[in-house]
Specification:
It is built from 9 helices and 14 strands. It has 329 residues and is α/β, with parallel strands linked by helices. Strands 2-3-7-4-6-5-9-10 form an 8-stranded mixed sheet, with helices on both faces. A 4-stranded parallel sheet has the order 11-14-12-13. The protein has a two-stranded parallel ribbon with strand order 1-8. The structure holds threonylcarbamoyladenylate and magnesium ion (MG).
């Protein structure tokens, strides 16, 4: 008789079937970390009410502690147990949840979310994601889940399970795979905690869509500004979403050795050329942006030249991420 083979190591990337979701939920409830897909990007989840679990998220990402996390719930009702919703928040939640919108609101006095997740602020960012895997996981855990994008701090966000593995390696014990994220850019973050509503981060829910639901104009997001030492607002570091290569914006063509990220009808092709959307579709471009930046970066070019992207609709969020990728490091 031969010795029994050792059990194979548990696969880190697992298809998000019911058994895997049950395991992931149990892992979260016992203080572990689980990466999971949302419609925007993959998140690195932890029990938001558990200080030590939240601390593990900051450690796994190498994220500065002053940058608070988004707390995800299965329903608007569950989010309302954490934060104070005023009339505008109610209307935005009704209009866009589940979906790619995050609301920064004042914490309720009895809010069970770890102060670490709020970076010590008296606010909490809440989101009800619409992705079926995220929905199933949140419903199964029944706890609020703190989840930043599942990448090392400063890298572009992951839109596939393989991106998560490449970025975090064995810092994340379990990755629920759910295909490519359909939106591809992080959620729109709206701050409703102060006297004037502000968009802190543009995303798929545009300022125009928000203004239409509220029936009032919305202040545009602040321009990309700040440095690593002095962020303009928490998490809004200028240099964020950065590939290894330098990024050169508003390029007409690539210089010798440069990679090229293009958009719309364009006959140029080659190993160092990728098109965000040949038909000029901004939603397709958003969904491809981070994967294309990663793919071009993998070729090791000194820089990536990016053609101009129209600054309307989803283009506003695409250009925000591109400006951060191009900002001085
Ligand atoms: O689409 C998304 O939002 C993804 C998925 C996983 O949900 N998550 C995500 O998380 O992008 P993260 O941590 O990469 O970005 C969260 C952003 C940061 O800019 C952070 O500063 C901001 O939300 N934020 C979180 N809590 C905040 C608060 N209390 N006040 C102001 N900004 C806050
Ligand atoms: Mg992030």
């Amino acid at each position: 008789m031969t010795d029994p083979l050792p059990a194979p190591p548990a696969p880190r990337i697992v298809g998000a079937g019911p058994a895997a979701i049950a395991r992931a939920a149990a892992c979260l409830r016992s203080g572990g970390l689980v990466a999971f897909p949302t419609e925007t990007v993959y998140g690195l989840g932890a029990d938001a009410t558990d200080d030590r679990a939240v601390a593990r998220v900051f450690a796994a990402k190498g994220r500065p502690r002053f940058n608070p996390l988004i707390v995800h719930t299965a329903s608007g009702a569950a989010a309302e147990r954490l934060a104070a919703f005023d009339d505008r928040a109610e209307r935005l939640a009704d209009g866009f949840w589940p979906g790619p919108l995050t609301l920064v609101l004042t914490r309720r006095p009895e809010c069970p979310v770890s102060p670490l997740a709020s970076a010590g602020l008296d606010t909490v960012a809440v989101r009800v994601p619409g992705h079926p895997v995220a929905q199933a996981l949140l419903a199964r855990t029944g706890i609020p889940v703190a989840a930043p994008s599942a990448n090392r701090s400063g890298e572009v966000s992951p839109t596939t399970a393989a991106h998560v593995r490449d970025s975090l390696g064995d810092r994340v014990p379990m990755i629920l795979a759910g295909g490519r994220c359909p939106v591809g850019l992080e959620s729109t973050v709206v701050d409703l905690s102060g006297p004037t509503m502000r968009i802190l981060r543009p995303g798929a829910i545009t300022a125009t869509a928000i203004a239409a639901v509220l029936g009032e104009p919305v202040a545009p997001p602040p321009p990309v500004a700040g440095t690593a030492d002095a962020p303009a607002s928490p998490g809004q570091l200028a240099s964020h979403y950065a590939p290894r290569a330098q990024v050169r914006l508003d390029a007409r063509q690539a210089e010798p050795g440069e990679a090229l990220l293009t958009f719309g009808p364009d006959l140029r092709s080659g190993p160092m050329v990728l098109n965000l959307s040949e038909t000029g579709d901004l939603a397709e471009a958003a969904a491809n942006l981070f994967a294309h930046l990663r793919a071009l970066d993998a070729g090791g070019p000194p820089s990536i030249a990016v053609v101009p992207i129209p600054d309307r609709g989803l283009g506003v969020a695409i250009n925000d991420r591109l400006r951060r990728a191009a900002a001085p490091r």
